[in-house]
Design brief:
It is built from one helix and 22 strands. It is mostly beta strands. The chain has two domains: 30-134, Immunoglobulin-like, CATH 2.60.40; 144-245, Sandwich (Immunoglobulin-like), CATH 2.60.40.10. The strands form seven sheets. Strands 1-3-8-6 form a four-stranded antiparallel sheet, with no helix packed on it. It has a four-stranded mixed sheet with strand order 2-10-9-5, with no helix packed on it. One of its GO terms (cellular component) is cytoplasm. Its main location: other. Pfam families: HYDIN_VesB_CFA65-like_Ig.
Length: 246
């Protein structure tokens, strides 16, 4: 290589290195996606029951070198029949994500034209949500609800003591249905039930949950979940639980 050509190559390399140090930050590009199997459609929903759809919010999947934080995040769902629940922070750094759920519990028969909306410094991103609230399932199917107390807070229980709460599950659908009870998992938690494999229409059964802490502090197990084919793809009928060892 001649001395002149070498000088040109060196100058080019220096320019490239200088350029690498001046990469500008790109604006955040929030990605809002459905992660549950039904997507954004609650489908046929029996009045008085509740279904859940799950979503993911992520700050940018654009492959950009540097992305600004997603800030001032506000999450809402409309109309009022839709209830969002999430643990998303108000700020997501590049590549960070969080998960959120939207519950649909209709009070009357109607078509749902809803929206999940996320507002931030990047503007607004949204997903349209749909479904149909009905008073009778067609084709006929089982649909379960909790009746009576749904208080999942066991309060403070002394170490090596125990507290039991009983939850009543009822089939308010118009057909018999195969029933699955998934007990909470967590240290100090156990459950039992008298539920049959198939719960007939109009029938009820009982699920007993016991909290027996061996250490002090707050304990949050996985939820108690009861499912029939009607709601299995929507997270089942889930009851969050919590207790504190004293």
């Amino acid at each position: 290589m001649t001395r002149f050509a070498f000088a040109l190559a060196a100058a080019g390399a220096a320019a490239a290195l200088a350029g690498c140090g001046n990469i500008d930050e790109s604006d955040p590009k929030p990605q809002l996606n459905a992660v549950s199997a039904p997507g954004t459609d609650f489908g046929q929903t029996l009045v008085g029951t509740r279904k859940r759809l799950d979503f993911r919010l992520r700050n940018s999947d654009a492959g950009l070198a540097k992305v600004k934080p997603l800030e001032n995040i506000v999450i809402e769902a409309i109309p009022p029949e839709l209830g969002p629940q999430h643990t998303c922070p108000t700020r997501l750094e590049e590549g960070d994500e969080c998960f959120l759920s939207v519950y649909y519990q209709p009070a009357a028969a109607a078509s749902l034209a809803g929206e999940l909306r996320v507002t931030s410094n990047a503007g607004v991103v949204s997903l349209a949500l749909s479904g149909t609230a009905v008073t009778t399932l067609s084709p006929a199917a089982a649909a379960v609800v909790f009746t009576g107390s749904t208080d999942g807070d066991f309060g403070t229980v002394a170490r090596n003591g125990s507290k039991t709460q009983v939850y009543v599950v009822r089939n308010i659908g118009n057909a018999d249905g195969a029933l699955t009870v998934t007990a909470p998992t967590g240290t100090g938690w156990r459950a039992s039930d008298d539920c049959p494999d198939t719960l007939t229409a109009g029938a009820s059964c009982n699920v007993s949950v016991t909290f027996s802490p061996t250490v002090t502090g707050i304990s949050v197990p996985t939820p108690l979940t009861v499912s029939v084919p009607y709601n299995a793809a929507y997270g089942g009928l889930a009851l969050p639980l919590t207790g504190t060892g004293g």
